[in-house]
Amino acid sequence: MNMELSGRGKPSPDKSHRVLTRDKTDHDSVGIGLNAAIVAVLDNEPVALVVRKDPDSAGATDMLPFGPFSPREHRTLEGGLRAWVRDQTGLDLGYAEQLYTFADRGRLPEPGDVAPHVVSIGYLALTEASADHGLTHGVWRSWYQYFPWEDWRRSRPDIIANEIEPRLKLWAERPSPAATPQRPVSRSDRARMCFGLDGAAWDEEKVLERYELLYEAGLIEEALRDGRSAAQAWTDRPKLGLPMQSDHRRILATAIGRTRAKIKYRPVVFELMPPDFTLYELQKTVEAILGPHLHKQNFRRLVEGAGLVEPTGDVKTRTGGRPAKLFRFRREVLLERPAPGVRVSAPPVRN
Amino acid sequence: MNMELSGRGKPSPDKSHRVLTRDKTDHDSVGIGLNAAIVAVLDNEPVALVVRKDPDSAGATDMLPFGPFSPREHRTLEGGLRAWVRDQTGLDLGYAEQLYTFADRGRLPEPGDVAPHVVSIGYLALTEASADHGLTHGVWRSWYQYFPWEDWRRSRPDIIANEIEPRLKLWAERPSPAATPQRPVSRSDRARMCFGLDGAAWDEEKVLERYELLYEAGLIEEALRDGRSAAQAWTDRPKLGLPMQSDHRRILATAIGRTRAKIKYRPVVFELMPPDFTLYELQKTVEAILGPHLHKQNFRRLVEGAGLVEPTGDVKTRTGGRPAKLFRFRREVLLERPAPGVRVSAPPVRN
DNA sequence: CTTGATATGCTCGATTCGAGCATATGTGGT
DNA sequence: ACCACATATGCTCGAATCGAGCATATCAAG
Asked: Chain-wide mean pLDDT for chain A?
């Protein structure tokens, strides 16, 4: 096979080359910031490591740990991240993956102000909560404090019906740029799909979409802070979760969505577990992250059947009932199956 | 709920804050490059848009289109990408998504040389090949020219058994840092999993893993160019696909892997199709990307059953047999189902 | 020793899905 | 006009998967 298909109106190759490949020196210089969403599960509560700015003042704002990336010091982005996380929080990261790179100007620049030329690269790290032996800075906070509408463990959170749904309906009715080729879905349809309104299914992975919809509707404190006009249009904007510095809440939303998606097709839950655990503890950890309750017997069948775990031989007594067998992660499963996640039943599709 | 769980050895919050949040001004400045892997399917061949450096010289190297990101000019990364792709190739991108941010120093700096200090953000764009009306620069090239071992459409590519497998076995036997906590899988196990050796299953999504393994083993021309010692150890290094400039082949590998993964759970195939198409054309497009042949009748059943398409009412004759009904993408499916991809059967899991 | 709690094993029915058979309807050759 | 052939399309059957519930095991606490 030796295809080479040129576009119509093929130009002289010399020109093509010169136009497409500008010299590296004419890049604008910007700073690179690394943001880490460090996630753990503590007492069945999914938590993220946050630090607090001005913790004693009234206008306290939480932020994700972050640090600059220096290409002089570090050969790779992830290496840089691990180094300063260790230096500054005492935590040795285990599993870490890159999430997304954000470069949007958040806060509108004042007239004459220069845009904050910082590009931030978000990372997701998963760690065992009890492994924070060396943790010297920062606190673990439930991620549902920042995203209360994401907490479906007991039932549909009231905040959706009481606060979010009515305001999104109002927002959808406001005059707005109609559905366009770029944005072919109407405001009300987006609200319906994101939040499962009017009988639509709830998709627990759409964490970022939900956050951005609320931001766009001006219902998120950060939107007001950033000077978005939609936010200024509300006279009774409710408090929807704790705000965070800069776009850190958006990064955390990305991290939650990614964690929820990935747990289903890669064995990443085990990064959050101690070496030995009972199947029920494993199930509770999965539920802390995904939300819905799972069928206990079937969860056991799936996890064991997939070869994800093996019994240690020990049991854990003091469980309030029959002692539970202890299991450990079977690393060999990675050598056997291509995508061994904790498969959970998809929510029933409504038509 | 109001959890706030501090790490052991909680410090004074003031110090915590100061350590973790350094001022933005002490970032190192770097340049941001945007790289676009623009993918289409032309005559059942998956292609990417490439430009050629020094097309007439002997040391010609292909490259992905790229351009600098200027935060002064562009509000968002994706906006910047669309703008210069349009300016420079005449192509109006439809679907685009961010892939990954690479900052590794590729070429080892000469003594006294400064590291390139460029961070490149890779994007994946999908487009209809016949929509290249305005294409003024660049050529479409089959992506299997860069990754011949990925082309499983006819059968297992010979290059795996003839070139790759024997050399990876040799590489696995060379003295190497043993499996460590950071890299718990041995060389031979990695080779086995990546390339489906010794009866392991082939996972068509692991495109990047395979490329990086070959790079690490020094079997990729770029590894030699970058001065990797593993590459210098070969006296008979075979030519495994066309090389590309800088780390562009790695970005293309990421793009292929992402496309293969995403096509299964989001309706992105339709970005590659004309407005009207037959189900067989759709199937051929999916197969061009995923590789294995699909069962025709079942493909039809799945696609129709998922509500992904609707008949236009017309038929396409001249198909060499009974005329085929024409279909179009049902955009409304996005409002009905959470993850409507082209589900294809997973390859049988071997135990 | 009883009660209650949790752990664990098993079964049944609905649904999904791989695979093949059968039929429909064109094109091109004689 | 008719036949051979190619592709399109519809349908069915059996295996595997999965949701849901029943039944049993084994501990702690009173």
From this structure: 82
